[in-house]
Amino acid sequence: MNNEQTFQSLRDHLRQTSLIEATAALAEWDERTGMPRGAADFRAEQVAHLRGLVHSRNTAPCLSEWLDQLVQWDEASDPHSDIGATVRLVRKDFEKQTKLPQRLVEAVASATVRGQGVWDAARKADDYSLFQPALDEMIGLQREVGQAIAEDGQSAYEALLNEYEPGARVAYLVDVFASLRSELVELIGEIQTSPRQVDDRLLKLAYPIDAQRKWSHVLAEAIGFDFQRGRLDETSHPFCTTLGPSDCRILTRYESNWLPTSIFGTLHEAGHGLYEQGLPADWYGLPPGAYASLGIHESQSRLWENLVGRSHAFWQHFAPQIRDTFPGQLADVSVDQLHAMFNRVEPSLIRVEADEATYNLHIIVRFELEQALMSGDLSTDDLPVAWADRYEQVIGIRPPSAADGVLQDVHWSAGLFGYFPTYTLGNLVSAQLFEAADESLGGVDQLTAKGEFEPLLTWLRTNIHAHGRKYSADELVQRATGKPLSARPLIKSLRDRYARVYDLS
Amino acid sequence: MNNEQTFQSLRDHLRQTSLIEATAALAEWDERTGMPRGAADFRAEQVAHLRGLVHSRNTAPCLSEWLDQLVQWDEASDPHSDIGATVRLVRKDFEKQTKLPQRLVEAVASATVRGQGVWDAARKADDYSLFQPALDEMIGLQREVGQAIAEDGQSAYEALLNEYEPGARVAYLVDVFASLRSELVELIGEIQTSPRQVDDRLLKLAYPIDAQRKWSHVLAEAIGFDFQRGRLDETSHPFCTTLGPSDCRILTRYESNWLPTSIFGTLHEAGHGLYEQGLPADWYGLPPGAYASLGIHESQSRLWENLVGRSHAFWQHFAPQIRDTFPGQLADVSVDQLHAMFNRVEPSLIRVEADEATYNLHIIVRFELEQALMSGDLSTDDLPVAWADRYEQVIGIRPPSAADGVLQDVHWSAGLFGYFPTYTLGNLVSAQLFEAADESLGGVDQLTAKGEFEPLLTWLRTNIHAHGRKYSADELVQRATGKPLSARPLIKSLRDRYARVYDLS
């Protein structure tokens, strides 16, 4: 076959793989939205079979032959062209997959399923010792995975991190996170000692779920989520999943006595959804149509949730509508009040309930601990105390129990080491992108106050979405903002917002 | 491999095929419940790919090797044992599939997709000439299919009929349908000339959809539909689909100004669902865990919809509840009134809106016409006039347009020749089974009047559901009722019910 034909074969192969992957994603979406409970065993068998089909397609010998030919092709020489990026990244993925012995893949799969079950039981029993053996096993297996896929001189941890955040360097993150940490601790201190405090009891009244549901649709649609190419549903642990080039499903959660859950959950997932809907549909299932990294994905959700959704301008625009939607609760609420309530800061123990300022401190603790676990500097015997010590030092509260401490997250039980930092990366990137968009558009807040979200979305489409996976996260940030990633924009943005809410100097 | 091992290989192979088939069914369920509109093209590609995987698994050469070995096995010698039926029926399916040339399979698939699109446009335009070329193509292709799979001396039409109703003989159906037709025409005549007529305007008031939705769940649960192993959702064209051994999805439709649509639609689909939930789950994806025929499937839906759901006893039991559920509309309704309204007879042009008495006449017309189309005795040029003539003769009304006549059903455009008679077969079987159950249980109506549906369900589980596909429809009816299928029980049941409603002698 000539190069064009070989490339077409590669493309067809990957496209067909994506058909099966999307089917597995549909099966999982259905499982988390409305599948009858009795169907769980068969569904697990089904998803495992589909994932097996995908794995064997991703390691098929024909891929290796085609790629060996295509790396010689002139058309593939630009690593950031559609063709060049496809050949380069599919090759990288293929090599990584074939580096993992089948035995290890199966051991990880089995440990992941068991680990989550054990974790769940341990958390319910508030008993870390039930979980520790599973955690030891998982650390051992993930260390093996990291070592197997590490490139020259890389630590196992960095190799795992790169599974979620290709190209990220641990040393660089350590620096950036350190400056972020000291600035955040200082900012939170100022907030806590400010004489002005925020009363958010209004948000704890009874909010009818039906009205919240309609309101969530209004918000998602307002910022540009396309309901012709997506849906918004309800689930217990919100997420966003993509079932095809024009089928993005976002899921949110409604709490009757805490309104922010659905508002910011919806804006967050809709932010993920806007990214997925903005990826080049023609390249669905191939690198030019895929997301760049988890950090970039999270930057899109955080940008809409926080930089837009928690801005004063946003509530200037939406105040009349939210008053009309919840007349029994919010008829007399002012814009300042809404803005203040949605930006209340209060350090607490649980990551998923954290406010925007303390959230990153939760991540930084995990980032430090998981590096030490992976390198062997910290044993699982010492983990609960290390966790509690770090919380006390960094956040100022010591967890009274394992359930509220080291057992609170599912991630490690599922083998996700190197995953947590992508949350904070997302926050950092979101602020840096917003700053650049703000400059380029001559002020995003002015547009937001008028309910005009399209210019910002177009800026993101052009600078981030359109590139798929052709550039790394670092490259995307550099190209879009003209600067390497730093903590400054996030700190500045938080400081500005909280200065207004808490009357800081 | 020894016979046990070979059988296990066969079983594993079919089980894995069922995982993929169930995935395709999920994709179709999702498409008809809530898939975003923009996702249609990708979904079509996905389902086609999954169906292709299933087809290649169903025609895999290993199957032929295994089956050649297993037909010699002693354990497989009883054609109605689990093993014997599996070997026998998988072999039959395999031989049939391999008789069809790939070219023909693809031509049919393509014509089916196009045909339905053309039919839809033609019906909207009320212009038969738009549809005629597609119909000609489809008749030609299906004739070829029928000829390819026909067994010795069989007509192409009977071979097609056997795709849906294995073992059914056209000559026998012609006889049974003829006696049914003359009896029905006579019965309808008596009803139309009866001095007592039924006023059902109460059912055309405004019925809130939310209340109808809850009421539908109540009814489905009451007759035994297991919501741990199934769901009830909403769609525009109700159906029942099975996504795994413990995952049966039924779908119904709500009309705000016509209450019977949701009540009898739900009972009908729940009847299908009870059959699916009663099939042996261990044998899911294999003949002992599969339904026997479309006629048997329809007998289960019709039994619950009509023999149970339209009985006087059913409304004796449910009258208090329906009055409470719709107090604004039905607070003062009597049992007799409910029973009469739900059994009103009025000949009309459209099959899907037909009452129970005239329904089978609609089928008989189609059965006659499609035999003639398939044999070549009737040309598509003459079809619209032949259709109108038959409606006038059999039902007493001449369609004023093609849309209300020959263009009303999707079936022929989708290549479904030989499918219509299974509807009437289902009606015949439902009445014959009900009669046998009634005798065996000492009166089903007495149980129904007390809201006790489990004895009847258990009788159906034992006599029909538990056997899966191990017996043909004829064999099942003979075993369950002690008699070959006849029109007598259906006619008797209709005559008894209408005698009460219309005061016939």
TrEMBL record, chains A, B:
Cofactor field: Zn(2+)
Catalytic residues, chain numbering: 269 (proton donor/acceptor)
GO BP of this protein: proteolysis
Binding site for Zn(2+): 268, 272, 298
Classification via InterPro entries: Peptidase_M32_Taq (IPR001333)
Catalysed reactions, as listed in the record: Release of a C-terminal amino acid with broad specificity, except for -Pro
Keyword set includes Cell division: no
Cofactor binding: number and manner: Binds 1 zinc ion per subunit.
EC number: 3.4.17.19
Keyword terms of this UniProt record: Carboxypeptidase, Hydrolase, Metal-binding, Metalloprotease, Protease, Zinc
A GO MF term: metal ion binding
Family according to the record: Belongs to the peptidase M32 family.
Function noted in UniProt: Broad specificity carboxypetidase that releases amino acids sequentially from the C-terminus, including neutral, aromatic, polar and basic residues.
Protein name: Metal-dependent carboxypeptidase
